[in-house]
Amino acid sequence: MHKLADDLHQKLFNEEDARACKDIDGSACREVPGNFFRIIVSQGLTKIGDAVSNPKIVLPALLTAVGAPLALIGLLVPIREAGSLVPQLGIAGYVRQFAVRKWAWVAGSVIQGACILAMAIAALLLTGQVAGWSIIGLLVVFSLARGLCSVASKDVLGKTIPKPQRGRLNGWSSSLAGAVTIAAGVGLFSVSDQQHVWVYCALLAFGAVLWWIAAAFYSQVDEYEGATEGGANALTHALSKLRLLVDDRRLRHFVITRSLLLCSALSAPYYVLLASQHSQALAITTASFVAISGIASLLSAPFWGLFADRSSRQVMIMAAVVTALLGLVVVSISHWYPALFSLAWVLPGVYFVLTIAHEGVRLGRKTYIVNMAEGNQRTDYVSVSNTLIGFMLLFMGGVTAWLSQWGLMVVIAVLSALGLLGALMARALPEVER
């Protein structure tokens, strides 16, 4: 098996890339091929799990099917996203206690699978408000475990995979997940007009199994021991790391840039809403958008990953510009020729381009922060950045919700302007792949 991994890795990377291990431990370099495929499989499986428990599609449908209050549906995305980001300063202090941090990822993945399975059981046994709040409570725990995996994965990636290969690893795992997301979108067509609880529960149970299999694969990653300074008093150490935003100009610049690049994620629901206003079949529109997002990820993620290995900074710039220009085009169409939105291909095409841009933003900033930091610093950078971004996500989500009272185009125009600012900020960042 080790020989097979070596051969496949050699075919994927040229000899110069395969030997570029200056930034990781010498003994770890020998284990790169095996670790590369273990991490790809693990990340791919969890991304598929995310797709079949999508908080924008599957979980809202599940809450509707069990008769939960409509207000609870609005809590799903904020809890899922910000809930895994905001606590990461404290989580990082806990993770720092472990010299080998893959076990934090394994534990987080096991917990996520258990939470997803428990959601399915709650939906089968409970109804109404009780079922809804049970699922929301489990989602809180799920998000905390997701944050644990996020902190640990960046550090393990930095210790086991050399810089010239990290972007492609993220890209190919996203592409794998994109292929399955296409199938999920196609499958949703068959249940788009049904409210069978067991269908959604079966999807969640399948996702739970994927997380547990991913944990098994990740447990086999060969990771050497790292530093554990700061683990004794996790909370005090974590709070002290906020000082990094004052002392570390490069990290501060990156966090501001990443905050502006949230435009790609925050734009997506408004494009879906715009499509729903121009379609008579909302369920079919939603299912088609799921499939479209999978196709976009499948096709674009390997390109962005390869590009990020050369310059993750340039990836962020290009993806931010595409997001901004797309928004400006949509605003212009709405003002000058709104009838164009009624054409069947226009808004799906817009969402396809947006998803490609968002994939670039995501892969670019993930690769950049891993390559920017070294050693134990990487855990601090990731936790400080993610915690601040969690708060910014809540803040900007509230601002866009407030702006929406003046119409969708106002929100899209403002987010496009933020995207242009993000591209300018990214342009001033230093290169970290050299």
UniProtKB/TrEMBL annotation:
Residues 200-434 form the Major facilitator superfamily (MFS) profile domain. Pfam families: MFS_1. Keywords: Membrane, Transmembrane, Transmembrane helix. The chain crosses the membrane at residues 57-79, 103-125, 131-149, 169-191, 197-218, 251-272, 284-308, 315-337, 343-361, 381-402, 408-429. Gene3D superfamilies: MFS general substrate transporter like domains. This is MFS transporter.
